[in-house]
Structures are given as C-alpha cells and as structure tokens.
Amino acid sequence: MYEGVSFLPLTWPDMLYMAPELFLAAVFLLLVVADLLLPQKVSRLSIGWMTVAGLLGAAGFVVYRLIDLQGSGREVGQVIELLGASYVVDQFANLLKLVFLAGTALVALMALGSVKQDKDITDRAELFYLLLPAAIGAMIMASSGNLVTLYIGLELLSITSYVLVALRRRSSKSAEAAFKYVVIGGISSAFILFGMSYLYGLTGSVDLGDFRTALPEVMTSYPALMYAGFFFLIAGFAIKIAAAPFHAWAPDVYQGAPTPVSAFLAVVSKGAALAAVLRILYNSAFFISGGGGGGVKPVGNDVYLALLVLAAAAMLAGTTAALRQRQMKRLLALSGVANAGYLLVPIGLNFTTVHSSNVSEFIFYLIVYLLMTIGAFAVLTVISQAAGHEELKGFSGLYYRAPWTSAAMVVFILSLAGLPVSGGFFAKLFILMGAASAKAYWLVAIMVISSVISYYFYFAIVRQMFMRSSSEEESEIRVSAPTGIVIWLCAGATVALGLMPGLLMDWIQAIFTIRGDLLIGLG
Amino acid sequence: MLPSYLTMAAILFCIGLYGALVKRNAVVVLLSVELMLNAVNLNLIVFSKYGVAPSLTGQVFSLFTITVAAAEAAVGVAILIALFRAKGTVNVDEYDEMRR
C-alpha cells in the first residue's frame, strides 16, 4: 500500500550549500570543547569573541550564496533544493538568515558587554556558545521546505532558548521564567504538530511543494479537517511569536532571562517563527484562497483573515498593556507583542495583483525591528548596571549622566514609536500603504490607533531621561566597549534607514521574486 | 476506523491541554504536555494508515516527534529540578515571583 519513497542522501555539493549551518555547528562543537579544556583562569570572554567571529563567518557564507544566486542569471523558479526539497536555499532563506545571524551577533556582543555585571550567571561561556545552535535552528526554519525539517529547526531553537533563559543560575526568577517558557513552548509545539498532522493526513505528504496541488483537491470534501489543521498551526505559532491573545508568557520570560537572551527571544525567535508562518501559508493556504468558483468558500481566505485578526489583537493588546507597565523588560516585551502584530499584517494580507510586495515589507520591518529592539535592550543593560534594577525610573536623569547614550535611546524610541527620521517610520509606512492598497481599511485604522496609544509609554521613557533626578548622585555612566558598539551600530543603521529607506527596499525587491524565492518546487 | 481514532487523539489532546492548564503539580504539568505530544503521534500514525493518501511519511514523522519530545522533556525536568532547589516546592501556584 505504500508507494516507494526514494531517499536522496546529502552529497558533497549539497554540503557546500549548507556551509553556513555546518560552519556554525563546527564552531559550536569547537567552543564546547574549548570551554571544557581551557583552564579556569582564562577569561570566558574569549569564547564570546569567538562566537561573534563564528557568526560573522557564517554570515559571510550566506552573503556568498546570495550573490552567487543573484549573479547566476537563473531562470525563474530555479532554486537549490537539498534532500528531496526538504531543505531549500533561496533568496527568502538567505535574507532571513542574514537577519538572524546579524541579530545573534549583536546579541552576543551585548552579552560580552554585560555578562560581567550579572552575578547570577555562573557559566559565562554557555551564554555565548548556546546562541549558536539556536541560530542554526532559526536558519533551518527559514530554509525548510518540509514540515519535518521545519519542526526540527523549531525545536532546536526552542530547546536551546529554554536553557538560555535558565542561565542565571543563582536567581530563582530565571528558573521560574525558564519553567514557564518550557511549559508554554511545549504546548505551542503540540499545537503546531497537531495542525501539521491534519495537513499531513489530508495531503499524504509533509512537503510544502506538494500542498499546492494536494490541498485544492481535498478542500471541498474535508473542509472541517482543513480548518482544524490551519487553526491549530496558527495558534501554535501565535504562542511562539507572542501575538495576543497568546502573549501572556512573554513579559514573565523576558523579565527572568538574562537581558541579552531577552533580546534574542524578542528578535531571532520571533522572526524565525514569523518566517515559518510566512513560508508555510504561502505554500499552502495561498492556493486555496481567492475568489472561489462553484459556490465553494475557499478555506484559505478565512486562514488569512484569522491572521489579520490576530495581528489587530496583538497591536491593541500589546500597546494597551504596556501603558501601565513600569518594568522596562516587561515593557519591551509588550512592545514586542505590538510589533509582532505589525509583522503579521503583511503575512495576513494575501498577495493580490495590486499588492504583491508583502515579503519585502515584512523583511524591511524585521530588519528595523531588530535594530531598534536590540539597541533598546543594549541601553537597558547599561542602565540596569548603573541603577541596580530594571525599573523605568532607572532612566531618570540619564541625559545628564550619559548624554550620548540617551541620544541613541531617543533614536530607538523614535523608531519604536514610528516617527520620522528613523527606520521605524518607513517600516510602518510601507506596511500601512500595503494594507491600504489591499483595501484592509479597518486594519489601517487599528495600526494608526495603536501607534498613537504607544506614544504615551514610549515618550514616558524620554520624559524620564530628560528629567533631572534629585535622589541619586549624578556620576557619569560608563558604557563598555562591546555594548557601545551594539548601541551605535543599531542607532546608526536606524537613522540611515530613516534617511534612505529606498536603498534597502529596492535591494530586497531586486533580489527577491515570489515565484522563485518563496514558493517551493515550482522549478 | 479513521473518525474513531481521530476522536481518540483529539480527546487525548484535550485532556493533555486541560492538565497543563489546570494541574497544580509541576511534574503533572510536564506529563500533560507529553500527553498532548502523544496525541499528535497517534494522529500521524492513523493518517499514515487510513489517511486520504496513506504513506510511510507519517510514521517517520512520529519517530522524529518522539525523539524531540524526549529531548524537550529532559530539559524541562532539568529546569524543574533547578526551580525546585530554588523554591523548595513543585506547586505551580507558588511560582509567582514576577507577577505585578
């Protein structure tokens, strides 16, 4: 009864295509052994610098592949598929891998600058080298062309993040946050898998490329199973990306985790899960959506509508919950919930003839979100070191104690709030115009309303910074070199994207085609 | 046969979700999450025999999920032990240090 399944082993040329992941894995193993063998008196910060070097090396391989793919003058739809199309190397994957590697490298730098102040972390080397398997997991998710590969990447990322959250071993808050994250993460994995199992049952395949033909055939006969499959999948991923109403874990977990790990969860974990949603839905639900002939209501339309409702709920819930938040990490977590909503908008607005730049809007927003969020978390590590806590009042009088750092923080807040001369303004504008051209005016209204609400708590931070504090002594705050690099790289790039957004947007649109770089198996 | 197996898996999934959300004992919470993952395995295996297009892939997929679930449980229990050492209790109601 089973048809023959041909197994395609990994060949040497295939290994070359997987060079970024394999290189990172090799660096990871090397660093684990190095941590064991190095004598106690050698500073573990050297392992941190090697982690950053490894991430940059892997990014080099990705850039090489990206240029190679662009320059080869390939036909539309000609992509690199490994292991029977379970692993695809296309420009969508390459762009996202660059984002994840850059994000992880910035997080590692931030950890280098702040790990010494955190007395709760007993094994500093682990904070650095455990970022590598998590980055590999995110890269596998961006590259997967098959539900099994996607699940493996997701779990590699999740399980490593559970350990990362628990790294402040002397703090009971860290263990509590990690336990909450394990339970919620396990539930979300179960939801995702339950949805995947229904999709597999309907199509008899786990390959994203097969869904395109198999799903429309069974849409009319098994609509209920298909709804169940997609909705379980969306609910599971909504927990992973912390979109309301599945976001309640995020503030607790971010608060208990070491600050660089919170930034990692906010940027790389969230981005990888969003990339997976984008890849799965545009390879499956896209082909059962649209006008629908013969009185059949296409299931895919409701799937996309569910994503938009989720996006709207996340934007409103994130911003309103942040209004009365005085703990900076929880505030940034809730701002991440609202940003997850913005990132879901281009995914939930289906491709139409008038609006087909969804993916470039998504990637642009993800890059801007990465810069401003990591920058804000980096400033927070500086403040919490000086103040000894992570409350909002730690920012009071920052302008008089560290004028340059507070200038950078103003840039990040302008970007988070979506005001001009920052990347955040154009990122939001592109998504807003996309939603308007797709005629989703109710969503445009919600995006504008939630932006306006968010000004209140973002500018509360600015007000604190320029308010002269009377209680504390006004000594100058020192910023360590790696943290300074992170803050100024992020601030510089945010301003640059605010001045010249067209450069990046045009570049993304030039190298990315929907047919060749997102859909699988059209070659 | 298919509907009864699917109902069985759905019931297992719901029992697991109920346990994960309601139970007070942290070990039982982890067990309930495993129950949810096992409901998925049952689904995959049933579909690989009675599905719309039966194939071996479902059984292979379930092998992957079993392995990964074991890894996840190992990390989960390790974190629970660390938490138990810090707090001296497995009652999840008392894990509320960060609530405000």
Automatic annotation (TrEMBL), chain A:
PANTHER family named among the record's database cross-references: NADH DEHYDROGENASE (PTHR22773)
Main localization (coarse): membrane
One Gene Ontology term of the molecular function aspect: NADH dehydrogenase (quinone) (non-electrogenic) activity
Keywords: Cell membrane, Membrane, NAD, Quinone, Translocase, Transmembrane, Transmembrane helix, Transport
Enzyme class: translocase
Family to which the UniProt record says this protein belongs: Belongs to the complex I subunit 2 family.
Enzyme Commission identifier(s): 7.1.1.-
UniProt organism field: Paenibacillus radicis (ex Gao et al. 2016)
Function: NDH-1 shuttles electrons from NADH, via FMN and iron-sulfur (Fe-S) centers, to quinones in the respiratory chain. The immediate electron acceptor for the enzyme in this species is believed to be a menaquinone. Couples the redox reaction to proton translocation (for every two electrons transferred, four hydrogen ions are translocated across the cytoplasmic membrane), and thus conserves the redox energy in a proton gradient.
Domain NADH:quinone oxidoreductase/Mrp antiporter transmembrane: 144-454
Annotated TM spans: 15-38, 45-67, 95-115, 127-144, 150-167, 179-200, 224-249, 261-282, 302-324, 331-351, 363-383, 404-427, 439-458, 479-500
Protein name: NADH-quinone oxidoreductase subunit N
Automatic annotation (TrEMBL), chain B:
InterPro entries xrefs: NADH_UbQ_OxRdtase_chain4L/K, NUOK/Mnh_C1-like
Entry EC number(s): 7.1.1.-
Stretches that traverse the bilayer: 6-22, 29-48, 60-84
Catalytic activity: a quinone + NADH + 5 H(+)(in) = a quinol + NAD(+) + 4 H(+)(out)
UniProt topology in membrane: Multi-pass membrane protein
GO terms (BP aspect): ATP synthesis coupled electron transport
Keyword set includes Membrane: yes
GO cellular component: NADH dehydrogenase complex; plasma membrane
Domain of life the protein comes from: Bacteria
Entry keywords, A to Z: Cell membrane, Membrane, NAD, Quinone, Translocase, Transmembrane, Transmembrane helix, Transport
Gene Ontology MF: a single term: NADH dehydrogenase (quinone) (non-electrogenic) activity
Pfam families (UniProt xref): Oxidored_q2
Subcellular location: Cell membrane; Membrane
Keyword Acyltransferase: no
Family: Belongs to the complex I subunit 4L family.
Annotated function: NDH-1 shuttles electrons from NADH, via FMN and iron-sulfur (Fe-S) centers, to quinones in the respiratory chain. The immediate electron acceptor for the enzyme in this species is believed to be a menaquinone. Couples the redox reaction to proton translocation (for every two electrons transferred, four hydrogen ions are translocated across the cytoplasmic membrane), and thus conserves the redox energy in a proton gradient.
NCBIfam families from the UniProt entry: PRK05715.1-2 (NF004320), PRK05715.1-3 (NF004321), PRK05715.1-4 (NF004322), PRK05715.1-5 (NF004323)
Subunit structure, interactors included: NDH-1 is composed of 14 different subunits. Subunits NuoA, H, J, K, L, M, N constitute the membrane sector of the complex.
Protein name: NADH-quinone oxidoreductase subunit K
Originating species: Paenibacillus radicis
Gene: nuoK
